[in-house]
């Protein structure tokens, strides 16, 4: 049986003239044109020497052609390797050396530097995204998609590498197909949907969750090159659904022209890639009349849980396991399942879970239990309705005076205080307690800025003494990565001396 994801997508195309993608200036690409252009690219890949199983690495800005490279790679039976455009040449060196791609697609402005790097690392072919497009237009449009087995690789996505060198998560055609099918059904996507797509396409959220789900439904996308708040507000009336990170929603709420009338026709707002605060959830519902659907996933597993389309969407919860996915809360050291309500490490098993880390068999073995559960590294608990609540990464756990402090619990309490927009809680060295709890907060626009004394005073009756921050720092904004996740490793480096003189 052929498991090539693109074959499934092709089989769902009911009308080749239907819109697949619409750019902000109104330029349209139909499903038929998508098939034609991706076919030309796939033919070009073969002519350039790409064989099934070869890696095609691409570091380019988000564009229609960058997305078509992904689809053409699937068609050619190759392995898609998207790289963040923000990566420096030194970082790109590691990825090229580790993945050994047959083809590297770079930005025109970096062609000279990247060609020299590729030559040094013996990468066979280098093209800029512009030269690739020019060459592809001279190729035939017809292409016979390469059959793929379920376990064949479709993509390698490198993890952020904040705790060591980046690991390449190997995702198979079965992984991507099963999760896209599940989300298509769980979130009720149809050909009538038009998704507002402002996410990057080098990451699971924008590349697989948003794109694959829309493609399987035969829907269309309003395809923005990046997060542009003015463009989003202008295009929302033309959309039926939107996927974003929490920052998208907090910035929408900061705009007075974001109104209930503007989104009265919308069907669905989805949030992921970083925790959505309960306060943002409630404020968005009050303003827009929509309860944001929060879900949970990661590079290695695609999507794991989701608040239901029909049924309670609980603020602060990422919902129950998706159909076909097993989730359990386990004791971190032993993997023993924990009772309902107890905090432990979240573990997952299912056809959505990746094949392993590229050329890291020992690391892969470390991250799986003998019975096949993947250890996510996220700490959480499960309630009586099987809804999962995440309390933080295992590595973010603060142990102060021998007691466990889960940052998410403290962050929720602080974000409920007047004047506080966002909060990140970390642990840094403390001469007496081992680690001291530190909160870094941002203020709300047009409200008095929070101050350290007021925050600490307000928490005295809300949290046990050992959970209360010993220091509170007010900043203009929190450091984030490209997907909007707060970079707590950066905060720990910044505030590591907060108690040095205690």
Mind describing the biggest β-sheet? 8 strands, mixed
Structural class of the helix and strand makeup?
A: alpha/beta
User: Biggest sheet, strands in spatial order?
Assistant: 2-1-10-9-11-12-13-14
Mean pLDDT: 94
Low-pLDDT ranges: none
Radius of gyration, in Å, reads 23 Å
**DSSP helix count?**
15
User: Per DSSP, what share of the residues sits in E-state strands of 2 or more residues?
Assistant: 15-25%
What is the total tally of β strands?
Answer: 24
- The percentage helix is 25-40%
Shape: globular
Cα separation of the termini: 66 Å
Structure description:
The longest helix has 17 residues. The chain contains 15 helices and 24 strands. The radius of gyration is 23 Å and the shape is globular. The strands form 6 sheets. An 8-stranded mixed sheet has the order 2-1-10-9-11-12-13-14. The model has no long low-confidence stretch (mean pLDDT 94). α2 packs across α3 and α2 packs across α6. The termini are far apart. By secondary structure, the chain is an alpha/beta fold.
């Amino acid at each position: 049986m052929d498991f090539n994801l693109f074959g499934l997508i092709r089989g769902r195309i009911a009308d080749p003239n239907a819109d697949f993608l619409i750019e902000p200036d109104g330029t349209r690409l139909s499903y038929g044109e998508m098939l034609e252009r991706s076919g030309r690219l796939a033919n070009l890949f073969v002519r350039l020497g790409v064989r099934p199983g070869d890696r095609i690495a691409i570091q380019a800005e988000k564009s229609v052609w960058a997305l078509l490279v992904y689809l053409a790679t699937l068609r050619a039976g190759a392995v898609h390797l998207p790289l963040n455009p923000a990566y420096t040449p030194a970082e790109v060196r590691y990825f090229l050396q580790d993945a050994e791609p047959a083809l590297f697609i770079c930005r025109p402005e970096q062609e000279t530097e990247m060609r020299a790097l590729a030559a040094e690392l013996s990468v066979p072919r280098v093209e800029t995204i512009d030269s690739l497009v020019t060459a592809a237009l001279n190729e035939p449009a017809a292409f016979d998609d390469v059959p793929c087995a379920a376990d064949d690789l479709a993509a390698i996505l490198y993890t952020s590498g904040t705790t060591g060198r980046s690991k390449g998560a190997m995702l198979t055609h079965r992984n991507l197909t099963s999760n896209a099918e599940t989300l298509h059904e769980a979130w009720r996507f149809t050909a009538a949907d038009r998704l507002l797509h402002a996410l990057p396409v080098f990451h699971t959220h924008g590349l697989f969750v948003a794109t694959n789900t829309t493609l399987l439904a035969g829907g269309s996308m309003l395809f923005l090159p990046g997060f542009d708040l003015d463009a989003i507000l202008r295009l929302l009336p033309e959309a039926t659904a939107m996927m974003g990170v929490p920052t998208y929603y907090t910035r929408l709420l900061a705009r007075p022209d974001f109104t209930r009338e503007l989104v009265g026709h919308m069907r669905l707002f989805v949030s992921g890639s970083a925790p959505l605060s309960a306060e943002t959830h409630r404020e968005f519902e009050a303003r827009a009349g929509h309860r944001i659907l929060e879900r949970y996933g990661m590079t290695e597993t695609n999507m794991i849980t989701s608040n239901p389309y029909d049924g309670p969407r609980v603020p602060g919860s990422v919902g129950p396991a998706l159909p076909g996915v097993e989730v359990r809360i386990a004791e971190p050291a032993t993997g023993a399942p924990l009772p309902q309500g107890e905090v432990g490490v979240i573990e997952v098993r299912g056809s959505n879970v990746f094949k392993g880390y590229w050329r890291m068999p020992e690391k892969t073995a470390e991250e799986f239990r003998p019975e096949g559960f993947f250890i996510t590294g996220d700490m959480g608990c499960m309630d009586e309705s099987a809804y999962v609540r995440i309390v933080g990464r295992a590595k973010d756990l603060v142990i102060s005076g021998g007691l466990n402090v889960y940052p998410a619990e403290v962050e929720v309490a602080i974000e409920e205080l007047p004047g506080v927009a966002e909060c990140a809680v970390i642990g840094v060295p403390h001469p007496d307690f081992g680690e001291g709890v530190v909160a870094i907060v941002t203020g709300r626009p047009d409200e008095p800025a929070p101050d350290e004394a007021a925050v600490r005073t307000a928490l005295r009756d809300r949290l046990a003494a050992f959970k209360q921050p010993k220091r509170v720092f007010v900043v203009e904004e929190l450091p984030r990565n490209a997907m909007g996740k707060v970079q707590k490793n950066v905060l720990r480096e910044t505030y590591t001396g907060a108690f040095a003189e205690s």
